[in-house]
Amino acid sequence: MAKLRFEAPFSGWIGVREVSLGQYLTPGTTIASLNVWQPLRVVFTVSQGQVAKIHPGLPITLRVDAYPAHPFMGQVVAVSSRVNPATRNLTVDAEIPNRHQWLRPGMFGEVTLAIGHPQVRIVVPSTAITYSTFGDYVYVIHQKKILAHLIPVAIATPVRVGSARGGLTPVRLGLKPGERVVTAGQIKLRSGMPVSIHGTQP
What are phi and psi of 61, to 5 degrees? Predict the structure, then answer.
């Protein structure tokens, strides 16, 4: 070994040694793993319905559990030429600069694609949505005059919602920006009942 010179085909980081001192090595034995951290390749899949929207150069945002408050920005560099016939998904390759080397090969994360134009959506805590066979609804807080006093009451309001994400649910129809909704205790409510408001957030 002292007379041999090992040259890596690329620059990178060597991990834990996978052989012991004095061990007899045969051709093909892995001595250590060499990984590239900068840039880092991200591989993920999208459904076949998104094929027309995915292309090289498309911005992505990667989030990992190790750094929940720090999104990593990158872009798509390659798109598979075929859809997987078993899953009907398309494989996409992207690159993340990883300048601070916080990310490591093999980490699992969540990728968000910048598809289409940004849209302003009303979102509410998912606990505010009441689901029923007659349609989804939320209890919206209104001020009602009772005996010369304004009293907050909860009014059942039908809504049309999207898919929940991260504890929040987008409301596509039925709410106006700034309206307050009930997020707990709906099982005890009836439309028009007085309520107590805790906190000041809408």
Answer: -125, 125
Q: Is the model more confident about 164 or about 62?
A: 62
Residues 6+ apart with CB under 8 A from 14: 32, 33, 34
SS3 state at 138 = strand
Contact (Cβ atoms closer than 8 angstroms) between residue 140 and residue 155: yes
Enumerate domains of the chain plus CATH numbers.
40-113 (2.40.30.170), 122-194 (2.40.420.20)
Tokens read off for 132: 């029923």
pTM for the full predicted model? 0.52
What's residue 50's pLDDT? 86
- Cα 159 from Cα 151, distance rounded (Å): 24
Among candidate residues 149, 158, 43, the one with its CA nearest the CA of residue 95:
43
| Sequence-ordered list of residues with C-beta below 8 angstroms from that of 198, at least 6 positions apart, any chain | none
Six-digit token pair at 21? 């001192």
Continuous segment of H or E residues that includes residue 110: strand 109-113
